[in-house]
Amino acid sequence: MHAEHRRKALEPRGLPVGVLAFDGRTIWTGNEKVNGYCQRSHKDDKAKTPYWQFRVVRAVLVSSAAPICVHEEPVPAETNEMAVFASVYETVLQEFGRSDLFEIVSCDAGFCSLENATRIHESGKAYVFGLKANQPKLYKEAQRILLPMAQGAPKGRDGVGEGARDVCPVPAVADSGDARVARVGPPLARCGL
Q1: How far apart are CA 173 and CA 1, in angstroms?
Q2: Among candidates 72, 69, 75, 71, which has minimal Cα distance to 35?
Q3: How far from 153 is each of 56, 71, 146, 169, CA to CA, in Å?
Q4: What's the pLDDT tens digit per position in 46-66?
Q5: How far is CA 78 from CA 17, 35, 38, 178, in A?
Q6: CA distances (Å), 5 to each of 1, 96, 130, in order?
Q7: pTM score, two decimals?
């Protein structure tokens, strides 16, 4: 991985900075518990049939031409993705923190917390979090700050055909209950945000 970075094979495409996305994934589902990390769940049937899932948190360099997973860590059965973010992030920082591999950290709404935002900010990186209406105070504050910015911003199109969507070059809060929260620092400022 380090050799690929030194060869410039992991250079950002589309943005002038590297973006590392953290996401939780279920990589196995089955009818029996095959290891200590498997979390029990149940089907939505009358019998509430149990099944087990093996989940991981992974860090993927999404800014390179070919997105590459730089780290993956299992989620213990008794917890969730948010609880292992600190460990995963610290491991990634130990391995790649001194390089210019990434300057922006992107996380889905499941990782959105003051603790995680502070951790990323204090490491000198910018962040973009998904935000949903199930965090009402934060969501309302994001609307208050970001909606005025989005209303007057020029819009463009992302994609072509039926899958195209309007995009706004500033952080925006959608009425659907989803939003993005961003700390605009030097990396994002270079992107025009």
Answers
A1: 36
A2: 75
A3: 38, 36, 11, 7
A4: 888 899 999 999 999 989 888
A5: 36, 13, 9, 27
A6: 6, 10, 28
A7: 0.72
